[in-house]
Write a structure and sequence with these properties.
The complex is a heterodimer of chains A (about 70) and B (about 240). With about 70 residues, chain A is mostly helical. Chain A has helices spanning about 1-15, 20-40, 45-65. Helices cover about 85% and strands about 0% of the residues of chain B. Chain B has one domain. Classes of the chains: A mainly alpha (about 70), B mainly alpha (about 240).
């Protein structure tokens, strides 16, 4: 049980880290990109744009929390 | 395709994938510890070798798009987290000690005799994904010319050359301040992650693989702009 908990905690720390909004927004952005591509829209710009905005928001949240 | 031309073509194609693989390995090794990184890389190569030997040309049926999607998404998320921590620590040296104490794991040296799992997993994923792409190149080029052996020789030569260069710059990297190294690795992981995750979502990048360089430039410019803002904010708050 201890190993399973440690395993799950490792993956939680690896993916979610100290700001869950990064993982959430990237996951949503990938899903939307896939959907747009399926609708014949080459949305190559979406993921970089979301990554840039997400990093900015996460930095802002960290500064506000200090 | 003549023998020499086949070797050269495979060498060049595999070199590009090899550079991506080594960039991840060298960056992670220099920031999180070499032993765990090399163990992760060895595990990745072992799985890769087993898969390649077991599947042969059936390798081409593997769902590489899905693998790109998963690995890319994970690397992007991890890269953004590293970049964020590095930016905060570079811009606000005062908060650095507090943050380091808070997130012990981030600055902890590699555990003696143990494994640093972050380094292991990132190295493993990097080697597996890039290695699979190299294997695809070998199988595709080799099968087309009916000379898989020569194609494999070109790919192995590319990995040896790129690996030797990575080994040579290892010492130089250790002289770069840790937070700047973390910044560079975060930047690389976020760039490769964005590229692969989008490809996994079936995006076609304008300019093909060259888009990777443009993406790196955009990410770097953004990171420096955020760093400037954070420094400005820190100075204003002190006044």
């Amino acid at each position: 049980m201890r190993y399973i908990r440690a395993f799950l905690k490792f993956w939680y720390d690896f993916i979610v880290g100290d700001d869950w909004t990064i993982a959430a927004s990237i996951t949503v952005a990938i899903a939307v990109t896939y959907w747009l591509v399926q609708s014949n829209i080459q949305a190559w710009w979406l993921l970089p744009a979301v990554a840039i905005v997400t990093l900015g928001v996460s930095l802002w949240r960290a500064v506000q929390a200090e | 395709m003549s023998g020499m031309f086949l070797i050269l073509a495979t060498f060049l194609a595999a070199s590009i994938e090899g550079v991506e693989m080594m960039a991840i390995l060298v960056g992670v090794g220099a920031t999180r510890g070499w032993r765990s990184t090399l163990l992760g890389a060895a595990a990745g190569f072992a799985i890769l070798a087993g898969t390649t030997v077991a599947l042969g040309t059936a390798l081409l049926n593997l769902p590489i798009q899905r693998l790109r999607l998963v690995v890319g998404a994970l690397l992007l998320i991890l890269g953004l987290q590293w970049l964020k921590k590095a930016l905060l620590r570079i811009a606000r040296p005062g908060a650095r000690r507090k943050a380091a104490a808070k997130s012990q794991m981030a600055l902890q040296p590699e555990p003696h005799g143990g494994i640093e799992w972050y380094a292991f997993v990132v190295a493993f994923k990097g080697v597996l994904l890039e290695g699979l792409e190299i294997a695809f190149i070998v199988v595709t080029f080799g099968a087309e010319a009916d000379q898989v052996g020569r194609a494999a020789a070109g790919a192995v030569a590319a990995l040896v050359v790129v690996g030797a260069i990575a080994f040579l710059i290892r010492g130089w990297l250790s002289r770069i301040p840790r937070e700047w190294l973390r910044f560079a690795v975060g930047l690389l992981l976020a760039t490769f992650g964005t590229f692969w995750a989008a490809e996994g979502a079936l995006v076609r990048w304008p300019g093909g693989d060259l888009a990777l360089l443009a993406l790196l430039g955009v990410m770097m410019a953004t990171a420096f702009a955020y760093l400037g803002l954070l420094r400005h904010n820190a100075t204003t708050n002190r006044i």
